[in-house]
Amino acid sequence: MKWVKKVYGLFVEDPLLAVLGLGSLLIAFILSHVGLAQLSGLVLFIFIAASIFISLRRS
To answer: Is 11's pLDDT higher than 70?
Structure first.
């Protein structure tokens, strides 16, 4: 449970990261709704990783 608080704190401290994370969830939801579940998982992984990378580069 401690790691959940750390991840939540990361998103709360960086609003851009939270917006990018929510955007990637929306794109993944749309792809999975269309029937591209595997692509949805890949897109979600890549977008979240890129969002965290961008957030860390800005800091």
So the answer is: no
Q: Which two tokens stand for residue 27?
A: 């794109």
> In Å, how far are 12, 26, 28, 30, 58 from 33, measured between CA atoms?
28, 10, 8, 5, 33
Q: Tell me how far the alpha carbon of residue 25 is from its chain's centroid.
A: 6
Residues 6+ away with beta carbon under 8 Å from 18: 11, 12
C-alpha span between 10 and 4 (Å, rounded): 10
Residue at 6: amino acid letter: K
Query: pTM for this one?
Result: 0.66
Q: Which of 19, 36, 17 is nearest to 28 (CA)?
A: 36
